[in-house]
Prior knowledge:
Layout: H1 3-9, E1 28-31, E2 36-45, E3 51-53, E4 68-77, E5 84-86, E6 97-105, H2 109-113, E7 119-128, E8 135-143, E9 149-156, E10 163-175, E11 181-192
Amino acid sequence: MTKKWLLSVFALAVVAAVALQITPTPAMAQDSNNNAKTLTVDVAIDGSTLALNNNDPANPANPIRGATFTVTGKIFPGGTIPAGITPFDPNQPGSIGTWVCSGVFVADAADIFGGEAIIAFHTNQIFMFTDDHNALFTEGLEGSVGTTTHRVVVGGTGKFQDVFGQERQETIGLNLNGKGLFDIRFTFKLKRNDSD
């Protein structure tokens, strides 16, 4: 497998999306059932930032279980990025922050893209809304192509200080101008820790 082939396989991850409100900054809606606030953002991953450290030097283009990676993208208000394979450019105007993802393969790429492995990666993600002074931090598993996962929100800084909750991650498409990596919609359910 070549890196180009691996990235093109991500195109299989396209699922439908619902257009949501577009605001210049992340807006949180109150959930009346449990005092949780909902925050929805879209992320366009920039494939040119992908750094892959494969643990099989004999076959560096075919990641296996244990291979690590780091990639970044741009955060947009929820509903900004259209579903499907699009010419959406992660570096276009309108971004409200930077997304950083570092992780490890928990299955071989051949099993992930061959449909045998449902869970593909374990990752840590940082959602920086301006910089690390207003950021959310998440951790959890990510599914293979077409799988929606739920991740834990482990905390935040600035206006997200003392928050915790859960995040739903769903792949909504593929951005061709971002060198062919995913567009992802994240829906957070956040609560504030009242320990003060």
